Structure prediction request, 431 residues.
Amino acid sequence: MRLFAWVTFSVLIIGTKATLHAESPVFMAGAHTVDITPPIGLPMWGYGARHDRPAEGVLDPLEANAMVLAVGEDKLAFVGLDMGRPPMRKSFQRIREEVQKQAGVDYLFIVGSHTHHGTCIEIEGIPSKENSYVTKFENGIIEAIVQAEKKKVPAKWAVGRLQTEHRNRNRHTKFEPKPVDRELAIIRVDDLQGKVIGHAVNFAAHPTSIDAEVMLYSPDYPGTLKKEVAEKMGGVCLFLQGAAGDMSTDRTGTADYKDFGKQLGADAVKLSQSLETKVPANPSIRFREEELHFTNLRVDYQNKVIRAVFANAFFKELVDPYMIEYKDGVRPRVTVAIINDELGVVGGSGEFFCNHSLRLKERSRLPHTLFLGYCNDYQWYFPTIEAAAEGGYGADGTVSPSPVGAGEQIINRGLFHLYDLQNKFKGITLR
Prediction:
């Protein structure tokens, strides 16, 4: 049977370190923020019609917000970036090596918010090789993680979820009922005295609330959301984007992106206030990461005509890194963790349609499950099979190069790892 001949799997990291705890393991947490606002004059990311027009100023600063969770020598970092995508493969590897060396942090979920008012981090050597913003961007992420690890203290935690009302909408399908993931989820960590260390907020909606003609840097609504939570509750707030491939904000009755972000932030504050943080009964971090390889792409990016079309739609310097990356196929990453036997986290390196996230949560059978899109790399859109059959932006081959069904394969691998990390396959020979 050759149904899945077009995908191979490569497990990069399996399980956790073999940590021997002389005493009962202690759950610890720390958080830190670094400003990563690019210099004015760099090309902006997200809208093809801009081509390589430079940013003209700063509407709101861009941040890297990090939260480190630790149990013994097992250390996991969540990083929320006010950027259109997470770091490129080469950058991610450098970041990983540095935080391992400087802070002993092995496990990473680096998540781009997908704001369309950041800069193009695909291009090394901007504004110059001697003064590369990409290097400064990498250093900012490294600093955020290292400082968060240094700040870690014994901690309590809670995970909470609520269904928001009309905060987002399905922008893709014309079929009813339209799938919508309206879940707002937070991870809250406090010190043992009850002082908030930080929140990680997970929600799915494109940060495209600011007009494309505004050539100013901004995190869009996630920036205001983070500010609202931090001001009302204290500590550092991260925004972790969800499966937003077909999700837009629903700003009905709101004035602008700031108003929307403040309202969504108020939802998060209300949720946080309803939670009681506790010292976890079974502190543990289990982690797995896997790279998949899809070879029969929907578009031939080595075709000179197709490359010219993309270069014309965006601009050559931005398109070239993707053309090189996709030369031998698409290599998305799936990143999985189970924290304190309560929370499962699955990260996917692209723009996943919301039904992927909804189905994952239904099938995981954990107390809480979060899906993080735009995580640890970026390979464009992953529509569902039915969305690919319907067609339209985000579902066709021009921006969804992986084979139809690739999204389902990635989610299934994430689900497999959630169960396998819990040793649910006892007595079963896995092949």
Observations:
- Residues 133-150 form the longest helix (18 residues).
- The chain has nine helices and 19 strands.
- Residues 7-294+321-421 form one domain.
